[in-house]
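Sequence in, structure out.
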Amino acid sequence: MKQKRTYSASETEALGYELGLLLHDEAKVVILLDGELGSGKTTFTKGLARALGIQDVVNSPTFTIMKKYKSKDRLKTLYHLDLYRLDGAGDDFDLEEYIDGTGMIVVEWPFQAEALLPKDYLMVTIKKIEDNIREFTMECVGIPCQRAVRYIWEHYFLMSQRTWCLWDSQKMTS
């Protein structure tokens, strides 16, 4: 499995942004984020949200389990779930109750409710190497995200410095 590294929170967010742009036009995509506490799951999700045109502050839904964000034009929806507080059975949590069938669904701590996971998803594993260094692996299960994952591996880090510079300037002007 291929691995890529980011060297700051800004780079982690930029990687999420780039992936979000690639998946922007998918009717429905499920992204599972696996990583220890503090590995950058929510930081990565902030980038995904920005790529969808979401201007709200994105933070971890640990205590609410799920937060729903709409893009400024109301055309895109991001469902951000954090299943950390659920036990292995899912606490009778009904994922479908919260999701209208479209949008980007990001699930932190997905294995807390493994029985609820869909058959098609993108698994993003984040490993904290040092204070600011993160190692990412991505695995696509199903059809919708394969093109985006291939693009990330083949092109993203070749143009990463440009992307991060653009990302920082966009953050400064927003």
